[in-house]
Fold:
Amino acid sequence: MQEIVKKGVIVETLPTSNVRISQYTHIQEHHVFRWMHLPGVKVDGDPDIQVCLGSDDPGIFATDLHNEFYHLYAVLVNEFDTTDKEAINMLGKVNERGRHYRFHPR
Structure:
């Protein structure tokens, strides 16, 4: 992870598909919250991972970016007791990274 930070790599995370096909039982367990440095989730020494959000195969996982952002928002507000404004600010940073680093024609 230190090497990823050192090289300036942005990590795309796919919460819905990760929960459905990995060791996570619930979205609030997802590593994205650790990468977002939430109190109580962040571990001392964690590097400052720059994360953006993706949606993996909408036809299989029945989700899209709107749903992914909503799921993260709901967890931030309901599970981590962030305010509406704090949650929107955190997700705004994730969204802006995705907009800036997306694949698009020049």
In short: The chain has a mean pLDDT of 87. The radius of gyration is 14 Å.
